[in-house]
Input
Amino acid sequence: MLKIDGLVLTVVDPDTGHETEILHGNSLELAQGEALGLVGESGSGKSMTLKCILGIEPDGARVDGTIALDGTDLLASGGDALRRIRAEDLALIAQNPHGALNPVLPVGRFLVEGMSDARSMGRAEARERAADLLRQVGIADTERVLRSYPHQLSGGMLQRVVIAGAISGDPKLLLADEPTTALDVTTQAEVVAILDEKRREHGLSMIFVTHDLDLAAAVCDRLAVMKDGEILEIGTPEEIRDRPRTDYTRKLMAARPMLYPEGHPAAFLAGGAGPAPLREGGGGNDETDRINGEEAGA
Amino acid sequence: MSTTAIIEVEHLKRTFHLGRKASVAALDDVSCELREGTCLAVVGESGSGKSTLARVIVGLESADSGTVRIAGHDVRPTTARRRLRERAALVQMVFQDPQGSLNRSLPVSATIDEMLRAHRPDLDKRGRRARVLELFAEVGLTERHADAKPAALSGGQKQRVAIARALAAEPKIIVLDEAVSALDVSVQAQVLDLLKRLRAEHGLSYLFITHDLSVVRDIADDVVVMRTGRIIERGTVHEVLDDPQQPYTRLLIASAPRPGWKPQRGLRDALMGADA
Output
């Protein structure tokens, strides 16, 4: 459904006319319902790639190549057509939820305005739909939250609101840019679980930008490793973890400090923690099988 | 490894008043100790009180009650220059954002020169320059880096400068407040290795404030877990990470992405139940 071909981003210095190439001709494809992780360190170009898709590249930058969404080249379409695509087909979940929310409007208004069929609904119905959206992202006291202004809510709560809003618009593609990086680890775990669940329920495609390889592996079908504006390799999380094709990926995997470098996680993670510890695949077996424990310790 | 405590914290309390009625206990009867030559990690999420603990220990903030003893001396906030200098010779601090201790318009060596003026009155200008270059070499930087302005250095290089600056005072203890949290993983690994080497070479003790359990595993000997101003679990890194006893510690561990990890909704309720 998304096909990026030969994407080049060039930034032009307005004073000197000097050109710097930021992205060097990247290509990737995303199937309907698929989640792709763009992983890399700072300056790798992962966020810039997302900006090119959204058409919010820096001022004075030039984008070459094609970005086709269901056959429509976003780079070739201009004006109203592009605005419509961005508004209806793409939904951004950024690191800072405040960017998506209007500080002087209660979040209930934000949710209602984002609904694709808001005009055909009465106030009460829209209100009930908004409350239902909040319940879907694990918010119980919906009345209070709908009435709250962004500054009155925590970062984790706001990010849930943004996710609810993104999904309500029924987009074709979710673009998540470090959506949980600013959150505490326990909040991150809950918010990313909600994002993952809702994305799958609605069959949405997603590009997930993060510096955290393990986080990306947990929610993505494939990972693209980026460095210095280039996609070095694309593969399933297992391929990237167990059979990296480039030295850089290997080094990146080995550099991560490991919570369980010997590959023996705490016993409670394997099921000794009482009710419903971790679901299948989240326990210890994957870790004891993995091969990179030794590398991490080296 | 010594068992002598170089920092002893006893019954520390600190309450922040947010308004006429609202207040929050940032430190609620906190006691812990840092054994000489070891690294104690203080782990917690935002609002746990871990940074307040660090700031009280180095004397940047006062406690309402309780005591902090460093190498046998009571620590209290002071503005007396002599007292501050004495304490700085004992404890240095490295923050998450190294930019804060660097002057944008001066070469980064200036911040270290300033430190040497205070702590090494025996050195003249030439001696200080030689010492600056020595310190830069120790943290893996060169003369070229010393003469660069902050903007020309990467985040990892700036954090190395901050570490060199701390070393310039020849302290016994370095308090590191999320000092590697903002770094890319490959840079983070290098800075952690640097910190481990410096600790061994200089017999330093570290108080390491972090939210990242993998980093704790990598560098710490002992760990205390903080939540809403209290220490809820303590022990060696092995005890706390491999056999956590408290539901909240388990939640922190289970929430941290690792190979094979999958997100799961309701982890907090599942692990903490009524305590959530």
Notes: The radius of gyration of chain B is 20 Å. Strands of chain B lie at 5-17, 23-35, 39-43, 65-70, 73-74, 91-94, 173-177, 205-210, 222-227, 230-236. The CA atoms of residues 31 and 75 of chain B lie 15 Å apart. Chain B touches chain A through 42 residues (CB under 8 Å).
